[in-house]
Specification:
Distance between the termini: 32 Å
Largest sheet: none
Number of helices: 11
Low-confidence stretches: 59-65
Radius of gyration: 19 Å
Number of strands: 0
Mean pLDDT: 87
Length: 225
Amino acid sequence: MEYNAVNAKIKAMSARLLTLPEYRILCQSQSIEHFMAQVKSRDSIEEELRRVRLFLTNIKDRRLLSLEEDFIFAWSYIKSLPSGQNRQALIQIKGTEIDLNNILRIYRLKLYYPDAEIYSKLIPIFYRLSKDEIKQMAESPGIGEFIVTVRHTRYGYIAFDHVEAKIDHAMMRVFSRMTKRYPQSVAGVIGYFFAKKIEIHNLTAVMEGVKYHIPPEEILNHLRL
């Protein structure tokens, strides 16, 4: 595979992702029809909108796979790869994603289900979070203590206002860093698909907001920008 050519193509495709000013315009749509009219001229997202509509239509027929099994399978596969840029990049990408996912799970459980059993809900893989750090977070008596514990880990930079968006930002930085460090890897391709997933989430949120007549600024608050 000619990674330089692939990365150049990915860079060009990434330049077509929606920007904050464009999201602001979409949030001001007067109706779903108006929203669709606004985006139909954007070839970069029209296909994604079709996929969103298909997903929303068939969601009841979709079998949801275990996220834990997906992470375990992916981690085992990455670990089996021969030494090289792909293996190095993917270990850091997937390892960071697992760590951040576990932090988010503990946070949500403590916030919404303070009496829930935590350990069974976590991904049983440790990358840059040690077992002891996971234990301290899981057994912290409250949200405040949990956040203090996170501050003393490698992920102390994560803020918990709009935490999902902050984690997305952290992952995008990882993708960018891995693409530069390992240019002969698939990091750039995977990063692009991750960005497209965020764009689909945002478009779905805007459509729902427009449908229920939510004020534009409130819709923006639900986007992962």
